Amino acid sequence: MPGAANQDREIAKWDPAFAKQVVDTISPVIRQWHRAEVRNVDNIPAAGGALVVSNHSGGMFTPDVFILSPEFYDTFGYDRPIYTLGHYGLFMGPLDGWLRRLGVIEASRDNAAAALHSGAVVLVFPGGDYDSYRPTFGANTIDFNGRTGYVRTAIEAGVPIVPTVSIGAQETQLFLTRGNWLARKLGLTKARLDILPISFGFPFGLSVFFPPNLPLPAKVVMEVLEPIDVVAQFGTDPDVAEVDAHVRSVMQDALDRLAGQRRLPILG
């Protein structure tokens, strides 16, 4: 089938040697800047496909992937890819080729299925930019904006969901509002721009999406939770809404626990 062949070609663009080069060069800087800590990465199954579902943090300069991926490769090696589903807009610029070689693939059910059926791990942020620009004062809330497609993807591919939580990146600047109302007022929703975030940070002060402020060195902690076997827990014909509610509940409990362990903003 031509469609399946296209998806196979998409995931075949992952270049383990290039991924290792980037991880070895960039990730140490990011991990040191954020004093990053990844807990329990070995909760990801040692073999076979798995869908890692995480909240998304830090706005435009989200460090999530560059914190989790190196820990994954340190544990499982570069003979097993971890693909990240990304918004189509990421591939419209000059970094298109580099991103695909790193294992970033355009977010679609077909691409995710092809990667999962190949035995790879797929990282998805269901909340996308809606999540990564959540207000700092409501940072410790799991909110996917009603998106449940990840559940269907896991069910159809027959793989476990591995919930993962991240805390700290919403302290890299002061995220004031997603700006949904402003995007609607300016008619940006017609161009599929549902938010126009407003934040305050360094060095530009108040920013309405642009110019983007640089991230403060907030401590970031990520924790990989125990995998969820959807069929074993919810049956052969699971209710998608019920599974989604359970995943978010598990993640919220973990995020609340991590929030309780933090003592000071930015310092962690």
Automatic annotation (TrEMBL):
Residues annotated as domain Phospholipid/glycerol acyltransferase: 50-169
GO cellular component, one term: membrane
Domain of life: Bacteria
Organism the protein comes from: Mycobacterium asiaticum
Regions crossing the membrane: none
Any one Gene Ontology molecular-function term assigned to this protein's record: acyltransferase activity
The name this protein goes by in its record: Glycerol acyltransferase
Sorted UniProt keywords: Acyltransferase, Transferase
Pfam families xref list: Acyltransferase (PF01553)
